[in-house]
């Protein structure tokens, strides 16, 4: 004869389900933060690369409108890479892998 343990009200597994839901929400929050970090890092990397190119005389126009558009374009590209682009640079995955060890 098999015995089962009923946990929570009316035989449900409510405490276990709540803990699993909490862990899933924590994991989702960590993933969002890691992807946000990767997007910021990528944006700063792109800005540094663009700045290095401008120091070599490769500036398109030098106007504030072009600079603002380039910043918005870099931000959009960085966010797309981090959130949709097949794992981006892999920084978010490495961070999550390291945090999962704890």
Detailed description of the structure:
The chain has 102 residues and is mainly α. It has a domain of 70 residues. The chain contains 3 helices and no strands. Helix 1 packs antiparallel against helix 2 and helix 1 runs antiparallel to helix 3. The longest helix is centred in the middle third of the chain and has 42 residues. The radius of gyration is 23 Å and the shape is elongated. The two termini are 39 Å apart.
Using brief descriptors, characterize the structure shown.
3 helices; single chain; disordered N terminus; mainly alpha; 71% helix; 102 residues
Low-confidence stretches: 1-8
Q: Between the first and last Cα atoms, what is the distance in angstroms?
A: 39 Å
> Can you tell me the overall shape?
elongated
Structural class: mainly alpha
Give the biggest beta sheet.
Answer: none
Helices and strands, with pairings:
Blueprint: H1 14-55, H2 64-83, H3 91-100
Summarize the structure.
By secondary structure, the protein is mostly helical.
């Amino acid at each position: 004869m098999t015995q089962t343990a009923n946990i929570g009200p009316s035989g449900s597994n409510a405490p276990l389900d709540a803990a699993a839901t909490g862990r899933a929400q924590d994991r989702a929050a960590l993933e969002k933060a890691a992807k946000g970090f990767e997007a910021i890092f990528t944006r700063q990397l792109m800005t540094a690369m663009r700045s290095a190119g401008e120091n070599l005389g490769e500036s398109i126009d030098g106007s504030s409108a072009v600079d603002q558009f380039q910043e918005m374009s870099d931000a959009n590209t960085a966010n797309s890479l981090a959130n949709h682009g097949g794992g981006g640079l892999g920084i978010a995955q490495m961070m999550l892998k390291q945090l999962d060890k704890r």
